[in-house]
Every structure is written in C-alpha cells, then in structure tokens.
Specification:
Pfam families: DUF2889. This protein is of the alpha+beta class. The protein has a single domain, classed as Enolase-like, domain 1, CATH 3.30.390. Helices cover 22% and strands 27% of the residues. It has four helices and six strands; from the N terminus they run ββββββαααα. The strands form two sheets. Strands 1-2-5-6 form a four-stranded antiparallel sheet, covered by helices on one side. Strands 3-4 form a two-stranded antiparallel sheet. The chain is globular and about 65 Å long.
Length: 184
Amino acid sequence: MPLSPPAPRSLRHSRAITVEAYLRDDGLWDLDACIRDVKARDIALASGMRPGGHPVHDLKLRVTVNRELVIVDAEAASDAVPYPSFCETIGPAYKKLIGLSLMNHFRLHLKDRLSGVLGCTHLTELAQALPTAAIQALADDEFLARAGGEAQKPFELDRCHALRSDGPAVARYYPRWVAKVVSG
C-alpha cells in the first residue's frame, strides 16, 4: 500500500543510501556502501557556497567479509564533503572494523570504535546498514547452502515481526518450525 498523498511541499534535501554486494573470485564478499546528501538549492557552508544539486556528502565504505560475515578488510573514501581537507582524513579509521562480525552485536561494537570524534558521523551511520544488507546478499548463496535443507531452523525466523515463530507466516511457509502457543 502506498503512502498517502502528501501536503503541498518543496524538496529541500535528498539522501540516498545504497549497498551493493559482490561475490569475489576468492570466495570473499565485498559490500560497497554509499551515502549521498544533496541539497535542492544553493547553501552557504562555513567552507563556502555549495550549489544546489551538488552533493554535500558523497561518502563510500567498502567492507570485505568472509562466509561467517566477519570483516577481513575495510576502507572508506570521501568524494564530496562539507569541510575539504578535514573530513576526508578520517578514512583510515574505518580499518577498525576489521575483525568485527556483522552478526554479533556489530552496531554496538561500531559505536565503541567509531562514534563521535572517533569517526565520521555519516560513514558510521552508513556502516549500520551493513548487517541486514549482508544477510540479504548472502542469504541464497551462503545461509541456505549451510542450512542443509530442513535439518536446521531457517536463519530468517524470529528476526522480524512477520517471521516470528508463533506467527501465521511461519505456520504457512515453515510449518515444521512454528511455535505452538500454549494458552493458560
């Protein structure tokens, strides 16, 4: 169902976040993420005027993960920033992601390593999208191959509202794994 029709309005800002996942020839996965902020009109920044339609932020983050979703490499690049010669110097800090698991409290560990002045607010925000994007990317290739058919509970169960074990979607699509609700 679509959103309701909006009230009269004018566009002032656009933010686009993309994550693309690539299976590498060596069996590892690259997650290439980008966050891009664009103002619809000219704006005055402390560093000078930024014409409308030109990005204020165009930031990229690549993490390489293994089959277990542990980060084995990371790099960041800043192609457009509000404070040139300052913002883009933080890129090397994102090597601190190496060794983190996207499946094991990643967002908590990300905050510990790169929040506030330890990182770039926008790159760190972008990194928060990586766990769910990785699961979507690797689901068919990795998780299903490892599950061994119906022998193990499917990974996706109990990870969202629709696929809760005691819900109707699990009863319909995964009847073997439906949790019987005991009323008492």
